[in-house]
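Lab notebook page, bench 4
Experiment: in silico fold of construct C2
Operator: M.H.
Input chain length: 66 residues
Purpose: comparison with the prior construct
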Amino acid sequence: MVLYRLIVELILGVEIPAKTSIGPGLKIFHGQGVVVKGDSIIGKNAFRRNSVTIGYKTLGRDSPKV
């Protein structure tokens, strides 16, 4: 797990937790700044470019998840 984080997060600049569900065929072009929340699901043959965030942030008790 430490080696994974070293290579993927520090060297490649991509934050994708190992528990993320990713379908076959994912392509990341210019991955610097890609952040994925751990319980996200990425379907097959998806592609991502730089500076993409997948997930949500809760802003308060009644705020929607985006």
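Observations: Residues 2-54 form one domain. The longest strand covers residues 34-36.
Next step: discuss at group meeting.
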